[in-house]
Amino acid sequence: MHQRAGFTLIELLMVIVLLGIVATVSVRFVSLSTQGALDVSARQLRAFQGVVVSEQITRELREAFALSVRTSGDCIEWLPLEAGTNYVRLTRGPAFDQIDVAAFANLPSVGTTRAVVYGYGTTTADLYNGTNPGPVSPLISSIDNTGSPASIELSSGHRFTSTSPARRLFVVGQPVSLCRSGRFLYRYNDYSPSSTQPSPPTGDREVLAANLAGNVDFRYLPATLQRAAVVQFAFTLTSEDGSEATTVSQEVQIRNVP
Prior knowledge:
Radius of gyration: 31 Å
Largest sheet: 6 strands, antiparallel, barrel
Protein name: MSHA biogenesis protein MshO
Strand order of the largest sheet: 3-4-7-6-5-8
Transmembrane segments: 12-31
InterPro entries: N_methyl_site, Pilin-like
Number of helices: 2
Mean pLDDT: 87
Keywords: Membrane, Transmembrane, Transmembrane helix
């Protein structure tokens, strides 16, 4: 009579132990692989967010009136440029509330915009002081772009302190600011110009970026005869737990305006 061959208890225990080791290693490997994939995905998402925020800032700054850019701490402020043309005749008496200009190629909005005429020696502060006489007019109430010449009607009388060498007139909108507050970068708009840069302003705001670490570095390099004005900015985005960070830096050229 033949006895059936089988496994001893020790052999079964060894198999169970080996299977347990293999299972543990496999689970650990899968766990590490999954976590690695999640980390890579989070880094890619953070980098993508940085690119989106950087591009949005860049697009807006490229439309800034170069002389109007000013920085203070974690804030940058500028007047957006809406249109430009040549003037035929500046405000004249008795009301000093009408400017004759060449017709606009792209008609700017009215009610929230102002006319700017500046010459050599005009400073950034002059654009925000709101003085009369000064380089910036009161709000534009209407524009007749059909006449020859076209005409700009101001909400009140104004005299410009200087003329432009190239007889250039620009139309700018209400100020726009970017300011960091805590871990957020906000965009502010719909507020009036002030001689002192507000940090932050009291206008409408929207979140531009979240999960910021440290300061947002804004630097403005005025235009020279060799190059246009330049804005440099840098910010750092962090992961939810703050263990990883991605730094984004950019340099934006702002067109020289004659």
